[in-house]
């Protein structure tokens, strides 16, 4: 009966073109190397991605005949069990993020990953190896193996900015005043003149821009204004002295006394102006207020902006309010507004000790020129001097 089985086996070998007589000995070989195709996902900073690898390892088992390790005829091709080892390293990104699922073992063909709080590339690597599985068969031929060399695949995941966010860079954070400044208006009746500042606290645009794993405040489009109102002329009971020749010499002393400001540093009370006054002098007074305000407010805003832009928000993937530029802005905008508003108060404080000195001196230039002309024309001595 056994002899009949060998005869049948020999016939099968002949049909299959194997010049051998087949017995129950098995030869395992690795057949094809391990193949692996890695796919990495790009994502926003602090956001999630899943990296995956498609891999396989095909091993072959063949029958052999006694004393000859060469294959007699194939018995089949079998999938070997694979193991995976994931790792990461820096690319252009200074950080590598965090794996949030198992990174090694059988069947770990995917890995979950949270991107770092910085932009740039991170190298993702996977090593694929076979277990290998047992070699089955009643008798194994010498040289049988299912052990393939491990293979490694790597690629770069690119970490990008969230939608609507931009890199920090050059920007115009200077204070803009109208050019030209609004001309004075002449319809004021509540006093001699006024320089309006309260209605023109600076407006600005705020953007939290990305710089080296942080959000940096960038202030742009800083706009403000300052307007002047001066008393209307003429008005009842008063004479606006525009030309000293208009003053009769009989009234010269009255005009001189009305236009003379005896103390330029008394807080801005100005000359008496009981009857005679000068609209041009009031304009000079208010224009000086405006010039000094522009200088003081610009300086205060520049200082506030420098402080704001030096205070960055570190991106922390565990802190929801720092993950996007929009969230970072929402947490900073009130404090930034407070600093910008404080600049207004700081400018007022800087001017307060001598706020009327410069304007009174500017007005006195106009008043004193009028007085000097009246004195010369009417021969009045001694002349007023400072």
Which key terms come to mind for this protein?
386 residues; Immunoglobulin-like; 5-stranded mixed sheet; 4-stranded antiparallel sheet; 21 strands; 31% strand
Task: Walk me through the structure.
The strands form 6 sheets. A 5-stranded mixed β-sheet has the order 3-12-11-7-9, with no helix packed on it. A 4-stranded antiparallel β-sheet has the order 2-4-10-8, with no helix packed on it. Strands 13, 16, 17 and 21 form a 4-stranded mixed β-sheet that branches. By secondary structure, it is an alpha+beta fold. It folds into 2 domains: 30-58 and 77-160, Immunoglobulin-like, CATH 2.60.40.1080; 175-378, no CATH class. The model is unreliable at 1-22 (pLDDT under 50). Helices cover 26% and strands 31% of the residues. It contains 5 helices and 21 strands. Helix 2 runs antiparallel to helix 5. The chain is rod-shaped.
Q: Major sheet, described briefly?
A: 5 strands, mixed
Physical arrangement of strands within the biggest beta sheet: 3-12-11-7-9
Q: Structurally, how many domains make up the residues?
A: 2
Alpha-beta classification: alpha+beta
Number of strands: 21
Give the overall silhouette: rod-shaped
Task: Outline the secondary-structure elements.
Elements: H1 2-15, E1 25-29, E2 35-39, E3 43-44, E4 48-56, E5 58-65, E6 68-79, E7 82-90, E8 98-99, E9 104-106, E10 110-114, E11 120-130, E12 151-160, E13 175-176, E14 185-188, E15 193-196, E16 203-210, E17 214-223, E18 227-231, E19 239-240, H2 252-259, E20 276-277, H3 279-309, E21 313-314, H4 325-351, H5 357-378
Parallel strand pairs: 3-12, 13-17, 14-18, 19-20
Antiparallel strand pairs: 1-5, 2-4, 4-10, 5-6, 7-9, 7-11, 8-10, 11-12, 15-18, 16-17, 17-21
């Amino acid at each position: 009966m056994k002899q009949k089985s060998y005869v049948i086996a020999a016939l099968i070998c002949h049909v299959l073109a194997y010049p051998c007589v087949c017995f129950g000995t098995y030869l395992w070989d690795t057949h094809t190397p391990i193949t692996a195709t890695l796919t990495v996902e790009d994502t926003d900073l602090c956001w999630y991605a899943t990296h995956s690898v498609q891999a396989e390892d095909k091993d072959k088992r063949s029958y052999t005949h006694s004393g000859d390790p060469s294959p007699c005829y194939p018995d089949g091709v079998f999938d070997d069990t694979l193991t995976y080892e994931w790792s990461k390293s820096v690319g252009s990104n200074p950080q590598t993020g965090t794996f949030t699922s198992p990174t090694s073992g059988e069947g770990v063909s995917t890995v979950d990953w949270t991107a770092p709080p910085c932009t740039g590339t991170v190298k993702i690597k996977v090593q694929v190896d076979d277990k290998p599985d047992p070699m089955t068969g009643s008798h194994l031929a010498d040289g049988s193996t299912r052990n393939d060399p491990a293979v490694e695949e790597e690629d770069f995941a690119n970490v990008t900015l969230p939608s609507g966010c931009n890199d920090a860079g050059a920007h115009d954070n200077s204070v803009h005043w109208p050019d030209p400044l609004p001309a004075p208006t002449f319809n004021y009746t509540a006093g001699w003149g006024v320089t309006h500042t309260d209605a023109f606290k600076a407006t600005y645009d705020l953007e939290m821009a990305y710089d080296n794993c942080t959000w940096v405040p960038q202030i742009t489009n800083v706009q403000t204004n300052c307007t002047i109102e001066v008393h209307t002329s003429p008005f009842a009971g008063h004479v606006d002295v525009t030309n000293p020749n208009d003053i009769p010499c009989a009234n010269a002393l009255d005009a001189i006394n009305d236009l003379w400001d005896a103390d330029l540093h008394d807080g801005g009370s100005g000359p008496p102006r009981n009857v005679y006054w000068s609209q041009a002098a009031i304009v000079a007074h208010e224009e000086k207020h405006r010039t000094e305000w522009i200088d003081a407010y610009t300086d205060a805003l520049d200082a506030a902006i420098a402080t704001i832009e030096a205070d960055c928000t570190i991106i922390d993937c565990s802190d929801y309010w720092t993950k996007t530029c929009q969230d970072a802005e929402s947490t900073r905008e009130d404090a930034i507004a407070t600093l910008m508003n404080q600049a207004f108060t700081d400018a007022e404080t800087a001017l307060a000790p001598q706020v009327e000195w410069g304007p009174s001196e500017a007005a006195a230039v106009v008043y004193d020129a009028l007085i000097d002309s009246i004195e010369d024309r009417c021969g009045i001595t001694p002349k007023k001097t400072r």
